[in-house]
Amino acid sequence: MASTPILMSGLIGLSNNVLFAVKLAIRRYMLTFGFAFWLWAFLFARIPLAVIQDLVGLDSRPFVLINLISVGIAAFIIFDKGLATHRVLLSRWMLIGVGAFVGFWLIYLLRLLFDSYIIPIEFFQSSFALVKSFVNTTLVPIVCLPLILSVSPNRYSLDLCVGLGSLSVLSGEIAYVTRPVVDRLFDTRFSFEDLNPIPAGYSSASLVILGILILFLGRHYLQRSDAFWCRTNAIFAILVGLWGIQLSQTRSAFLSIIPMFIFCLYALWLARRELGWLFSGGLALFIALCAPLVVGLLGRGISSDPSVVGRLILIKESFHLIIQHPFLGTGFQSQGLLKSVAEPLPLWYPHNLFLETYLIGGLFLLLLLLMFISIVLKQGSICLRSHDFQDHDSLMLSAVFFLWVQAFIHSLFSGHLALIPGFWVGGMIVIILGSQKLSVQYD
User: Fold this and answer.
1) In 3D, which of 59, 401, 311, 47 has the Cα closest to residue 202?
2) Residues 221-260: pLDDT tens digits?
C-alpha cells in the first residue's frame, strides 16, 4: 500500500514529462513550419479535398481548412509569444498598404450597403454572398497573417511546401486520368465536382513557379548534403505542375508563368553571362520551333468558346457603362446590366479586376486599387532589384511575389473582387515580407 503513492507520483511525473516533450515538439514544428503548411493549404489543398469529395463524398471546403489553419497558427503564436508589437507593422509602406486595402474594402462595403438598403436594386449575386466570400476567402487569412509571418520561416519551408504541393496536385491528376471514360467525356478538362479547371490550372502553375525558382535561384542557400534532394524535389514539382496545366487547358495559367521565366533567365544571365547567353540561345531555338504549337494551344477554340465570347461581350459593355458613369461608376447595378447582355450565360461581372473596380466604385476606388498594386510592386521588387538570393528570406519574398503576379494575371481574366484571394492575400504577404526585409536592412 505504501508503494501506491510513489507509483502514482511516478506516473504523474512521467505524464508531465511526456506532455512537456510533446509541447516542445509542437512548438518547434508549429513555429518553424507553420507558414509552409499554411502556404500549402492556400495554394494546393483544394485539389486533394476535391479528390476526397469525388471518391468518398465528404464535402470539399478548402477555405474552411485555410481559415482553421490560419486561426490555429495565430492562436498558438499568441499563447506562445503574446501580442508583442512588431516594428514591421508600423513601417511606412506597411501602413500605406494596409490603408489602401482597408480603404478599398470600406468603400466597396459602403456601396454595397447603399445599393442594398438606401436605393435597393436587384442583385444577381446577393450582398450576403459577396460579404461571405470576402470574409471566408480574404479577411480571415489577412487578419492572421501578421502573426503567422512574425516567425521567420525555416530554410526548408519552400521545399516542404513544394513537396506537399507535388503530392497534392499529382493525386488530383491521377484521380482525373483514372476516372471512367464516360465521365471524362463530359469533363474534358482537369476538374471535379467542387474543383473548376481554372483554379486547378493555377495550382499547377504555382507548383511550376516555385519549382523553377528553387531550381535556378535557390542554388546559393542549398547545402551540398541536401542539394540533390532539393533539386530533385523542384524538378518533380515542375513536371507535375506542367502536366496539371496541360490537363486543365487553362490559357491564362500558361501566361502566368512567363514573367517568372523571364526573370529567371535575366538572373541567370547576371550570374553567369556565358551560361545565360547559352540559355537564351536555347530558348530562342525552342520558341522558333514550338511557337506554332503554343499559339495553336492558346488560341484553340477561342472564337467558338461560349465563355470566351461571353466575357468579350461583358468587357465591351463594361467600357460602355464606364463611359456613361466616369466618376462614381454604376455600383452593383452593373450586375443586372451585365447579366442582361450575357444571356443565356450566367455571367454577371466583367471577369476583370480593373473594370469591376471602376464599375462598382468609380475613379476613387480605382485609385485605391492602383495604390495597393504599386505598394506590392515596390515591396516585391526589393530582392528583384538587388538580385540577392543568398538567404532564404530573399527567395521566399521572390517566390511569394511571383505567386502574386500569377494571381494578378488571373484577376485580369477571371473571378470577381470578393473571390480573388490570391491577389489580396498574396499582396499582403508581399507587403509584410518586404517590410520585414527593409527593417532588417535598416538595422
Assistant:
1) 47
2) 555 566 778 888 888 999 999 899 988 888 788 888 888 8
